[in-house]
Design brief:
Elements: E1 13-19, E2 24-30, E3 38-43, H1 57-62, E4 65-70, H2 88-103, E5 108-113, H3 115-126, E6 131-137, H4 152-158, H5 164-172, H6 179-191, H7 194-206, H8 211-217, E7 220-226, H9 234-243, E8 249-251, H10 258-261, H11 263-276
Helix pairs in contact: 2-3, 3-8, 4-7, 5-6
């Protein structure tokens, strides 16, 4: 879960509902300024949303990119029905449909944050010809697994039996945020379609390691994390980067959510990679 510092939407960022061949998605869009360099699709993580990327959208537009981010199927403001396809392949197909709707046939840069990185990997494997580059931010090679800090098994079992607000309050207890942010986090969590949230939680418990398949596509990759990232083990992320033919980039001012914790630092580090590819 990313915790925004502000809910203010910067100038140039447009909130939009995008209907694709797959479904309807709540999105934020920002258009390139000056010389256009290409397109970028940003995929949020578990219990996240498009707001996890809001601060970086204008920064990317300033350096020449059309950028789209969205709530995944059943996340926050994107609808999701109990019988929808929440497989990683299905979520990847959703992402591709958004890219096709907004970018047309153009190849695009793809970034997945946390759980979104698992979706992005599957998209790269199954549709590599559409991907210009793949970036994984604070993500891992497969399942995150259960831990005392993130009791995903207990959360998965509770979804559908316990009110989502109660689950949110248990996982959010002890954290002090401004009242506006606290209200947003509660609204976002309780707006999740239970079937979507349960499926994404289960993927974090049992998703297979497919990094070698990603590497075999030949898509150029970038891997980064916050210095104090507390999700996938640091050595697992570093080894993943090595398997993908690169070295992990460490962002000193960030933990698990660099796009909101240190957006300028993150884009400064990512920019050279984007412009080189």
């Amino acid at each position: 879960m990313s915790v925004p510092k502000t809910l203010e939407v910067p100038d140039g960022v447009e909130s939009r509902t995008i209907t694709t061949t797959r479904s309807t998605f709540a999105a934020q869009v920002c258009h390139a300024q000056g010389d256009r360099r290409g397109s970028i699709l940003l995929i949020p993580g578990w219990t996240g949303s498009k707001e996890d990327f809001t601060p970086v959208l204008p920064l990317l537009a300033e350096i020449g990119y059309d950028v789209v981010t969205y709530d995944q199927r059943g996340q926050y403001e994107s609808p999701g029905a109990p019988d929808d396809d929440y497989s990683l392949s299905g979520l990847a197909a959703d992402a591709l449909s958004l890219a096709e709707q907004t970018f047309g046939d153009e190849k695009f840069h793809l970034l997945g944050h946390s759980f979104g990185g698992l979706v992005a990997q599957v998209l790269a494997i199954e549709h590599s010809k559409r991907i210009r580059t793949l970036s994984l931010l604070c993500s891992g090679p497969g399942a995150l697994g259960d831990s005392p800090a993130r009791p995903l098994k207990r959360i998965s079992q509770a979804i559908g039996k316990t009110p989502l607000l109660q689950i949110h309050q248990l996982r959010d207890q002890g954290l002090k945020q401004p009242a506006q942010i606290t209200a947003f986090l509660a609204k976002r969590f309780t707006s999740n379609a239970p079937a979507s949230l349960k499926a994404m939680t289960q993927h974090l418990l049992d998703a297979p390691d497919r990094v070698d398949e990603v590497a075999a596509t030949g898509v150029t990759c970038w891997v980064g994390r916050g210095e104090t990232d507390d999700a996938w083990p640091h050595d697992a992320q570093a080894k993943m980067a090595e398997r993908l033919g690169t070295e992990i980039v460490i962002l000193p001012s960030a933990a698990h959510s660099p796009a909101v914790e240190g957006p300028e630092e993150f884009i400064d580090e990512w920019r050279d990679f984007l412009e080189a590819n």
